[in-house]
Design a protein that fits this description.
Shape: globular
Order of helices and strands: HEHEHEHEEHEHHEHHE
Helix content: 25-40%
Organism: Nonomuraea aridisoli
Strand order of the largest sheet: 1-7-8-6-5-2-3-4
CATH class: Alpha Beta
Low-confidence stretches: none
Strand content: 15-25%
Keywords: Methyltransferase, Transferase
CATH architecture: 3-Layer(aba) Sandwich
GO molecular function, one term: S-adenosylmethionine-dependent methyltransferase activity
Protein name: SAM-dependent methyltransferase
Radius of gyration: 19 Å
CATH topology: Rossmann fold
Number of domains: 1
Pfam family, one: Methyltransf_11
CATH superfamily: Vaccinia Virus protein VP39
Number of strands: 8
Protein backbone atom coordinates (compact mmCIF):
# COMPACT_ATOMS: atom_id res chain seq x y z
CA UNK A 1 0.00 0.00 0.00
CA UNK A 2 1.43 3.35 -1.03
CA UNK A 3 1.74 5.95 1.68
CA UNK A 4 0.58 9.51 1.21
CA UNK A 5 2.94 12.41 0.67
CA UNK A 6 1.86 14.04 3.95
CA UNK A 7 2.41 10.83 5.91
CA UNK A 8 5.91 10.33 4.48
CA UNK A 9 6.89 13.94 5.14
CA UNK A 10 5.56 14.03 8.70
CA UNK A 11 7.38 10.83 9.66
CA UNK A 12 10.73 11.77 8.12
CA UNK A 13 10.65 15.31 9.47
CA UNK A 14 10.18 14.24 13.09
CA UNK A 15 12.35 11.12 13.49
CA UNK A 16 15.68 11.64 15.29
CA UNK A 17 18.74 12.10 13.08
CA UNK A 18 21.29 11.93 15.91
CA UNK A 19 24.33 9.74 15.38
CA UNK A 20 25.71 8.34 12.15
CA UNK A 21 23.55 5.22 11.89
CA UNK A 22 21.50 5.07 8.68
CA UNK A 23 19.50 1.92 9.49
CA UNK A 24 16.25 3.96 9.41
CA UNK A 25 16.69 3.99 5.63
CA UNK A 26 16.76 0.18 5.31
CA UNK A 27 14.38 -0.76 2.51
CA UNK A 28 13.83 2.90 1.60
CA UNK A 29 17.22 3.90 0.23
CA UNK A 30 20.39 2.11 -0.77
CA UNK A 31 24.02 2.98 -1.48
CA UNK A 32 26.80 0.88 -2.92
CA UNK A 33 29.79 0.49 -0.61
CA UNK A 34 33.38 1.18 -1.66
CA UNK A 35 35.20 -1.95 -2.73
CA UNK A 36 38.06 -1.47 -0.26
CA UNK A 37 35.98 -2.11 2.90
CA UNK A 38 36.90 0.71 5.26
CA UNK A 39 35.68 -0.96 8.46
CA UNK A 40 37.76 -4.09 7.82
CA UNK A 41 40.88 -2.11 6.97
CA UNK A 42 40.36 0.11 10.01
CA UNK A 43 40.22 -2.96 12.23
CA UNK A 44 43.50 -4.24 10.79
CA UNK A 45 45.25 -0.94 11.46
CA UNK A 46 43.81 -0.55 14.95
CA UNK A 47 45.03 -4.06 15.82
CA UNK A 48 48.62 -2.94 15.21
CA UNK A 49 48.44 0.41 17.00
CA UNK A 50 49.40 1.35 20.55
CA UNK A 51 47.74 4.77 20.69
CA UNK A 52 45.00 5.80 18.25
CA UNK A 53 42.90 8.89 17.69
CA UNK A 54 39.60 8.89 15.77
CA UNK A 55 38.74 12.45 14.69
CA UNK A 56 35.09 13.51 14.21
CA UNK A 57 33.87 10.10 15.35
CA UNK A 58 30.16 10.94 15.00
CA UNK A 59 28.19 8.65 17.28
CA UNK A 60 31.16 6.27 17.53
CA UNK A 61 29.42 3.68 15.33
CA UNK A 62 32.42 2.78 13.16
CA UNK A 63 35.00 2.78 15.94
CA UNK A 64 32.71 0.69 18.17
CA UNK A 65 32.69 -1.99 15.48
CA UNK A 66 36.47 -2.49 15.61
CA UNK A 67 37.17 -5.94 17.11
CA UNK A 68 40.19 -4.85 19.19
CA UNK A 69 40.95 -1.27 20.17
CA UNK A 70 44.51 -0.13 20.98
CA UNK A 71 45.50 0.23 24.66
CA UNK A 72 45.09 4.00 24.27
CA UNK A 73 42.11 4.98 22.12
CA UNK A 74 40.71 8.51 21.95
CA UNK A 75 37.80 9.85 19.88
CA UNK A 76 36.79 13.46 19.30
CA UNK A 77 33.36 14.85 18.43
CA UNK A 78 31.73 18.29 18.49
CA UNK A 79 27.96 17.82 18.16
CA UNK A 80 26.45 17.20 21.64
CA UNK A 81 23.90 14.50 20.60
CA UNK A 82 26.65 12.57 18.82
CA UNK A 83 29.03 13.11 21.72
CA UNK A 84 26.60 11.43 24.11
CA UNK A 85 26.10 8.48 21.74
CA UNK A 86 29.84 8.07 21.24
CA UNK A 87 30.49 8.11 24.97
CA UNK A 88 27.83 5.46 25.57
CA UNK A 89 29.33 3.21 22.90
CA UNK A 90 33.04 3.72 23.44
CA UNK A 91 33.64 4.32 27.14
CA UNK A 92 32.61 0.77 28.11
CA UNK A 93 35.40 -0.41 25.82
CA UNK A 94 37.98 1.76 27.56
CA UNK A 95 38.16 4.55 24.98
CA UNK A 96 38.30 8.22 25.88
CA UNK A 97 35.74 10.50 24.23
CA UNK A 98 36.76 14.17 24.02
CA UNK A 99 34.53 17.13 23.17
CA UNK A 100 36.21 19.20 20.47
CA UNK A 101 34.92 22.19 18.51
CA UNK A 102 35.97 20.90 15.07
CA UNK A 103 38.53 23.68 14.72
CA UNK A 104 42.29 23.45 14.87
CA UNK A 105 44.11 23.02 17.15
CA UNK A 106 43.64 19.38 18.20
CA UNK A 107 43.75 19.21 22.02
CA UNK A 108 46.69 16.79 22.18
CA UNK A 109 50.45 16.99 22.55
CA UNK A 110 52.84 16.62 19.66
CA UNK A 111 53.60 13.02 18.59
CA UNK A 112 50.88 11.52 20.82
CA UNK A 113 49.52 8.85 18.45
CA UNK A 114 50.85 6.23 16.07
CA UNK A 115 47.49 6.09 14.26
CA UNK A 116 44.97 8.85 13.45
CA UNK A 117 41.74 7.92 11.66
CA UNK A 118 38.61 9.64 10.43
CA UNK A 119 35.61 8.51 8.40
CA UNK A 120 33.96 11.26 6.38
CA UNK A 121 35.56 14.25 8.14
CA UNK A 122 34.02 17.63 7.45
CA UNK A 123 37.52 19.01 7.01
CA UNK A 124 40.99 17.49 7.32
CA UNK A 125 43.53 19.53 9.28
CA UNK A 126 46.66 18.11 7.75
CA UNK A 127 49.13 20.20 9.74
CA UNK A 128 47.49 19.13 12.99
CA UNK A 129 47.40 15.49 11.97
CA UNK A 130 51.10 15.60 11.14
CA UNK A 131 51.77 17.29 14.49
CA UNK A 132 50.02 14.69 16.67
CA UNK A 133 51.39 11.69 14.75
CA UNK A 134 54.51 9.99 16.01
CA UNK A 135 57.34 9.44 13.51
CA UNK A 136 56.36 6.39 11.48
CA UNK A 137 52.70 6.86 12.39
CA UNK A 138 49.86 6.93 9.86
CA UNK A 139 46.67 8.77 9.05
CA UNK A 140 43.95 6.52 7.61
CA UNK A 141 40.68 7.99 6.33
CA UNK A 142 37.70 7.44 4.07
CA UNK A 143 36.41 10.76 2.79
CA UNK A 144 33.59 12.21 0.74
CA UNK A 145 34.82 13.03 -2.75
CA UNK A 146 33.87 15.67 -5.34
CA UNK A 147 30.27 16.11 -6.50
CA UNK A 148 28.99 13.47 -4.13
CA UNK A 149 25.19 13.10 -4.51
CA UNK A 150 25.31 16.09 -6.86
CA UNK A 151 22.10 14.96 -8.57
CA UNK A 152 20.18 15.50 -5.33
CA UNK A 153 21.86 18.83 -4.59
CA UNK A 154 21.09 20.14 -8.05
CA UNK A 155 17.47 18.98 -7.91
CA UNK A 156 16.93 21.36 -5.00
CA UNK A 157 19.31 24.27 -5.60
CA UNK A 158 20.34 24.05 -9.26
CA UNK A 159 23.83 23.79 -10.79
CA UNK A 160 26.81 24.21 -8.50
CA UNK A 161 30.56 23.77 -8.77
CA UNK A 162 31.08 20.80 -6.45
CA UNK A 163 34.73 20.28 -7.38
CA UNK A 164 36.03 20.58 -3.83
CA UNK A 165 37.31 17.46 -2.09
CA UNK A 166 39.32 16.24 -5.06
CA UNK A 167 41.53 13.29 -4.05
CA UNK A 168 44.58 14.85 -5.68
CA UNK A 169 44.06 18.01 -3.66
CA UNK A 170 44.11 15.86 -0.51
CA UNK A 171 47.35 14.26 -1.67
CA UNK A 172 48.99 17.65 -2.15
CA UNK A 173 47.76 18.94 1.22
CA UNK A 174 49.11 15.85 3.00
CA UNK A 175 52.47 16.20 1.28
CA UNK A 176 52.61 19.90 2.14
CA UNK A 177 52.18 18.93 5.79
CA UNK A 178 55.20 16.63 5.53
CA UNK A 179 53.34 13.32 5.15
CA UNK A 180 54.00 10.60 2.59
CA UNK A 181 50.82 9.39 0.85
CA UNK A 182 51.07 5.60 0.59
CA UNK A 183 47.54 4.85 -0.70
CA UNK A 184 44.88 6.84 -2.54
CA UNK A 185 41.78 5.30 -4.14
CA UNK A 186 38.57 6.81 -5.54
CA UNK A 187 35.16 5.39 -6.50
CA UNK A 188 31.70 6.61 -7.53
CA UNK A 189 28.80 4.62 -6.10
CA UNK A 190 25.13 4.28 -7.02
CA UNK A 191 22.49 5.54 -4.58
CA UNK A 192 18.71 5.05 -4.81
CA UNK A 193 15.96 6.82 -2.86
CA UNK A 194 12.66 4.96 -2.96
CA UNK A 195 10.40 7.57 -1.35
CA UNK A 196 10.44 11.25 -0.49
CA UNK A 197 10.69 10.46 3.22
CA UNK A 198 14.06 8.80 2.64
CA UNK A 199 15.28 11.96 0.91
CA UNK A 200 14.07 14.19 3.76
CA UNK A 201 15.75 12.02 6.39
CA UNK A 202 18.99 11.93 4.41
CA UNK A 203 19.08 15.70 3.90
CA UNK A 204 18.32 16.39 7.57
CA UNK A 205 21.19 14.11 8.58
CA UNK A 206 23.78 14.93 5.92
CA UNK A 207 23.36 18.68 6.17
CA UNK A 208 25.96 19.73 3.59
CA UNK A 209 24.16 18.11 0.63
CA UNK A 210 21.54 20.88 0.55
CA UNK A 211 22.72 23.63 2.94
CA UNK A 212 19.86 25.17 4.90
CA UNK A 213 17.46 22.37 3.96
CA UNK A 214 14.06 22.25 5.62
CA UNK A 215 10.74 20.75 4.60
CA UNK A 216 9.12 24.16 4.74
CA UNK A 217 11.75 25.84 2.56
CA UNK A 218 11.62 23.18 -0.14
CA UNK A 219 7.98 22.11 0.06
CA UNK A 220 7.30 22.60 -3.67
CA UNK A 221 10.39 20.66 -4.76
CA UNK A 222 9.66 17.86 -2.31
CA UNK A 223 6.15 17.41 -3.65
CA UNK A 224 7.52 17.39 -7.19
CA UNK A 225 10.10 14.79 -6.17
CA UNK A 226 7.40 12.64 -4.55
CA UNK A 227 5.35 12.69 -7.75
CA UNK A 228 8.43 11.88 -9.83
CA UNK A 229 9.32 8.85 -7.69
CA UNK A 230 5.71 7.64 -7.76
CA UNK A 231 5.65 7.87 -11.58
CA UNK A 232 9.20 6.83 -12.53
CA UNK A 233 10.66 4.85 -9.64
CA UNK A 234 13.65 5.54 -7.37
CA UNK A 235 15.60 8.78 -7.56
CA UNK A 236 19.16 7.79 -8.56
CA UNK A 237 22.30 9.67 -7.54
CA UNK A 238 26.01 8.93 -7.28
CA UNK A 239 28.06 9.31 -4.14
CA UNK A 240 31.84 9.64 -4.34
CA UNK A 241 34.38 8.34 -1.85
CA UNK A 242 38.12 8.23 -1.59
CA UNK A 243 40.45 6.36 0.71
CA UNK A 244 43.69 8.01 1.76
CA UNK A 245 46.54 6.73 3.89
CA UNK A 246 49.47 9.00 4.70
CA UNK A 247 52.51 8.28 6.82
CA UNK A 248 54.73 10.56 8.87
CA UNK A 249 58.32 9.72 7.92
CA UNK A 250 60.54 8.11 10.54
CA UNK A 251 62.74 10.70 12.16
CA UNK A 252 60.51 13.60 11.12
CA UNK A 253 60.81 16.54 13.49
CA UNK A 254 57.85 17.36 15.71
Amino acid sequence: MRRSYDDLVQEANTVSVAGWDFSWLDGRASEERPSWGYARLLGERMAGARAALDVQTGGGEILAGVPALPPITVATESWPPNLALAAARLRPRGAWVVADDDEPRLPFRDASFDLVTSRHPVETWWEEIARVLRPGGSYFSQQVGPRSVAELTEFFIGPYDGTAREPEAARKAAQSAGLDVVDLRFERLRMEFHDVGAVIYFLRKVIWIVPGFSVERYADRLRELHERIEAEGPFVARSSRFLIEARRPDGAAA
